[in-house]
């Protein structure tokens, strides 16, 4: 039997994974706001676990870019500076454009039907900002999943968590849900009709609209600039 000295017990890995998922969800929904310091003693008590799996979970979130480590101070939830927001949408644009192109080469009607359900969920959640943001993200997640690319899905995972952090701020810039629904619906219509150029243009405009709302005066065409 081959010796595997670096393999840890499955139970510990499972505990760390559960902790990481709960912390990730708390960051994504704003329960742990940007800049929050994570104290090991408090969190270990709340999760009722030892510090070993807790540290493992937090280091995993550091590697995902959701926590930052400060020397002699500890771990903090990341702050999204203007350059970070621009970078998130720049990266998302690249990933989702690739996914949309894949969707055009697959079963367009099936993908469109899935996306239409996501838009219906958004409409149903019009009076619940948190549920609306979740449905909005599911639209983009469904588009990326439809690409069939495991790597695009993996690349998008952390981007969508960071996007959820942005949506908390973004939702306050809309007067109603109609604009958000229309932007998503027009992309679906272009996909269903096979109009690739229009669909890509609409996706770019959708990303740029988010940037202009979050960072007035900025555009994806500006590229990433130094944090202010």
Automatic annotation (TrEMBL):
Keywords from the UniProt entry: DNA-binding, Transcription, Transcription regulation
Pfam families linked: FCD, GntR
Transmembrane segments: none
HTH gntR-type domain span: 13-80
Annotated PANTHER family: TRANSCRIPTIONAL REGULATOR, GNTR FAMILY, UXU OPERON TRANSCRIPTIONAL REGULATOR
Protein name as catalogued: GntR family transcriptional regulator
């Amino acid at each position: 039997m081959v010796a595997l000295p670096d393999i840890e017990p499955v139970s510990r890995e499972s505990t760390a994974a559960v902790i990481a998922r709960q912390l990730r969800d708390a960051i994504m929904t704003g329960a742990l706001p940007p800049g929050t310091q994570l104290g090991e003693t408090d969190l270990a008590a709340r999760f009722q676990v030892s510090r070993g799996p807790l540290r493992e979970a937090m280091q995993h979130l550091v590697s995902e870019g959701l926590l930052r480590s400060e020397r002699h101070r500890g771990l903090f939830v990341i702050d999204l500076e203007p350059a970070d927001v621009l970078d998130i949408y720049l990266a998302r644009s690249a990933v989702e454009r690739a996914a949309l192109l894949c969707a055009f080469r697959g079963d367009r009607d099936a993908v469109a039907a899935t996306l239409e359900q996501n838009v219906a969920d958004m409409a149903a959640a019009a009076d619940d900002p948190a549920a609306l943001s979740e449905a909005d993200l599911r639209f983009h997640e469904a588009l990326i999943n439809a690409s069939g690319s495991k790597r695009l899905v993996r690349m998008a995972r952390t981007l969508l968590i960071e996007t959820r952090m942005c949506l908390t701020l973004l939702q306050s810039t809309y007067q109603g849900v109609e604009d958000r629904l229309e932007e998503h619906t027009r992309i679906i219509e272009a996909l269903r009709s096979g109009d690739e150029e229009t669909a890509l243009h609409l996706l770019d405009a959708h990303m740029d609209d988010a940037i202009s709302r979050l960072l007035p005066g900025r555009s994806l065409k500006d590229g990433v600039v130094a944090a202010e």
